[in-house]
Design brief:
Strand content: 15-25%
Radius of gyration: 27 Å
Oligomer: single chain
Number of strands: 26
Length: 566
């Protein structure tokens, strides 16, 4: 399957007047060929919305909403703004840069990994220009591991193999494609030189990953077909439509894990042995995000209250992390079909990631890479907002303080199914959140902890309160906090300085101020910082006794005592 066939949503952007004409031409042609294209131009032209934000800000906020992008601008200009956009090559959005004159289409990011090499050739055909492809594999007329995986609808289980195996391919070494799975039998014809022998580097299609460091293990993705049909479609027609659909995709029944619909099939024998039929209630697919679909049906909305049948059923069958790869199509007037895929799930993994206090620029690159490589993200709304530019089209589990355990159980269930989960914390991942992490790790043993800049560090820098001179007290726990109140009182008595993390809702800054004032410390200076390091950060400096009647947001930290650095 060509990369261009998998693009559901395309972004086209231009920042110059001349380039806007090129962007308009590209978007018009791609729409005429069935692609969903959003075009934004600095100057008004037909087919483009106005780009009003700085291009760096716009792309940071929107790029990951799309499957691919064409930017009409200079190549150096793209690289100046790309540092925050290109995070991890196996998960970056493929970008093609086109010059304002429409002469060149340059594969600028995610070349063979994401398919921008193929996209560059496609765009060059539209503008009647020259595709510029600079990687050693494609320019040498060879095929990369990633492209082989994409053509076999498979996921590379051990991505650390990619660089050495691709280097061997680029250097002209014989790297056989070995089939050890019964799946993708119809696609074996794509590899005339496939072999069962291995003498060095190899690419192996297998049902489970292996341990050979010189081998890339490609695991066939799970595949589901969604089908919609009306009362005039009998078993014979539905069967014929399914067979034609499989033939056109180069797939066999052995490749299909699910067929699903919102109606019972006229005859279940249509589905071959080994493939499961799933009937959904319309309510089961009602909340499918329309941005995951290539087609939204007004008729399905009117009759069933759903955005469609074929595509939503295909996605729901596989669950989180699935995406459409064979878009909605009709078979006659009474049957519709679509197919989705999702990497085969093995052992789960959870990364506990600190994303910093509020400013996205304070997030580490390691945190960014772990987030984009995850299947699902989880956490409270604030850390999800901090990382929002990386979360488009990722399933989310949004936590709420008063129902925390319910969401912990949901994440554990996803982990046990084999998903890779990124749990995001405001600030640091473990600085004040060890209680919550322990709830996960009692059952989720495959995990890592990625640090971040904590709100305590931010408060220290903002106020000049040196951490080594102040006690740090966190009330960010569930259950009884009387022992922590005692720690706070002892710290204030001994040091006259403390950095305090309030508990949302029931031990907020005003409650802390009253607690300390009632015990004789009302004349100590205090600063409450809301949304530390955010663009709308707010600081309130006063004395403890004067803060008793003040309300603050639940995203706040409190510094008590005279700063060390003034």
């Amino acid at each position: 399957m060509a990369m261009i066939d998998e693009i559901r949503r395309m972004l086209v952007v231009s920042i110059s007047k001349r380039g806007s004409e090129v962007a308009s031409r590209i978007s018009t042609v791609m729409r005429s060929r069935g692609h969903i294209v959003d075009a934004f131009c600095r100057y008004h032209v037909d087919g483009c919305d106005i780009l009003s934000d700085p291009v760096k800000v716009f792309l940071a906020d929107n790029l990951r909403r799309y499957d691919a992008a064409v930017l009409v601008m200079s190549l150096p200009g793209f690289y100046r703004i790309s540092a925050d956009l290109m995070i991890e090559k196996n998960h970056d959005v493929p970008v093609v840069v086109v010059d304002d004159a429409g002469r060149f289409a340059v594969a600028a990011s995610a070349g063979h990994a994401g398919g921008s090499d193929e996209l560059a050739a496609y765009i060059a055909g539209i503008i009647d220009g020259q595709a510029v492809i600079t990687d050693g594999i494609e320019s040498g007329g060879r095929v990369s591991v990633e492209k082989i995986a994409r053509s076999l609808l498979a996921t590379i289980a051990n991505p650390e193999c990619i660089i050495p195996v691709n280097a061997a391919i680029a250097n002209g070494e014989h790297v056989p494609v070995i089939f050890r799975s019964k799946k993708r039998s119809m696609l074996r014809r794509l590899f005339a030189e496939s072999s069962d022998e291995k003498h060095g580097y190899a690419i192996v299609l297998a049902d489970e990953p292996g341990e050979d460091a010189n081998t890339c293990y490609l695991i066939p993705d799970d595949i589901s077909i969604g089908i919609g049909f009306n009362s005039s479609a009998d078993a014979e027609l539905i069967s014929a439509c399914l067979e034609r659909f499989l033939e056109e995709a180069g797939l066999a029944w052995e490749d299909i894990d699910y067929v699903s619909s919102i109606k019972d099939l006229p005859d279940v024998s249509i589905i071959r042995k080994g493939t499961r039929f799933v009937k959904f209630d319309p309510a089961d697919i009602r909340d499918i995000d329309p941005e995951m679909l290539t087609h939204v049906s007004d008729k399905a909305r009117d009759v069933f209250g759903v955005p469609g049948v074929a595509e939503p059923c295909a996605i729901r069958s596989l669950g989180p992390g699935s995406k459409i790869f064979l878009p909605f199509r009709s078979c006659g007037r009474s049957v519709t079909l679509a197919a989705a895929r999702r990497r085969k799930l093995f052992s789960g993994h959870i990364s506990f990631i600190g994303v910093g206090p509020s400013d996205p620029d304070l997030m580490t690159m390691k945190a960014r890479r772990a987030i984009v490589a995850s299947d699902i993200v989880a956490g409270y709304q604030m850390p999800l907002d901090i990382a929002k530019s990386m979360l488009w089209n990722k399933p989310k589990v949004v936590f709420h303080w008063k129902e925390q355990q319910r969401y912990v159980d949901e994440v554990i269930d996803l982990y046990e199914k084999g998903y890779r989960i990124a749990y995001l914390f405001t600030g640091d991942s473990c600085f004040t959140e060890s209680e919550l992490i322990r709830r996960f790790t009692s059952k989720c043993r495959n995990f890592d902890i990625i640090p971040g800049i904590s709100s305590v560090q931010a408060a220290s820098s903002i106020t000049g309160m040196a951490i080594e001179m102040a006690g740090i007290i966190s009330f960010h726990v569930t259950g009884d906090i009387e022992d922590r109140k005692a720690d706070l009182l002892r710290t204030i008595s001994e040091r006259k300085r403390a950095i305090i993390i309030p508990r949302p809702y029931d031990f907020m800054p005003k409650d802390i101020a009253k607690f300390l004032t009632d015990r004789g410390f009302g004349d100590l200076p205090a600063v409450v910082i809301e949304r530390a390091t955010a663009a709308d950060e707010r600081r309130t400096a006063s004395f403890l006794k004067d803060l008793i009647g003040s309300d603050f947001s639940d995203i706040s930290i409190m510094v008590v005592g005279k700063p060390v650095i003034a």
